[in-house]
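User: Could you check the structure of this?
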Amino acid sequence: MTAGLMVSGLQALSNERKFDAWMTALLVQPFSRTLLPTTVDESFASSALELSPLTSKHLQGASPNVATELLRASVMLAEDGNLRSCVDLAQELLSDADPIGLRRCFASEVELSEALEEYRASVIFLYARSELSGVIAIPAFAGGPVYVQDMDLLLTRVFMLRKDSRAGEALQKIVRLVQLLSGLHLDPGKLATMVFSGLHTGAEMVTRTVCLSSLLQRAPHADPTTNFTAAGARTASEKQMEASSPSWSS
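Assistant: Sure, the predicted structure tokens are below.
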């Protein structure tokens, strides 16, 4: 997944709109107003609801038109050109006027505000994803096969991972790394080679760490001090491992 995201980001660098869409899909933040839907229909609202379990639960039994109008409201811009606050929208939509019939679906403004945040994220993601169709070829590394990843499927899996609070920080780091690599002004092919070299090295390190951990677990009664040398000293096996390891400098 990491390899696929890195490669897709590098491939999008040559096209500003696609790169904005890539960042938007990962971070669920519109990096361009052009990445907000200009037209809203029932089909798009239905697709967004499929990725919005909280909103979908509240709208069970409601007319499809309610979901469409809620989508329209979720991408409404304020006077300054930015998206309106979900808190302000919730207050307006649950007012006595009840403009789109939400009072039967939501018990409070807090409930509606939370649903709007989720629904808006799904809408922004889907619109950005539509700009990034295709497949990504991931070269073989760490003994694995060449892997072809469908872009829609990859991005959808990433979006679902955002339910884990740790995912957002990890995705921000991936976006930042691709931005830093773009500053090197190298050919995209060379950048991809650098990325896969790093991933290959990382995969080998993980494999060796797992093997070492397994060996240590098989000798539970061994004196732990015999598994490691004093600072600065290295055993013959450590030297051999070091000699066979990829160079960090490269």
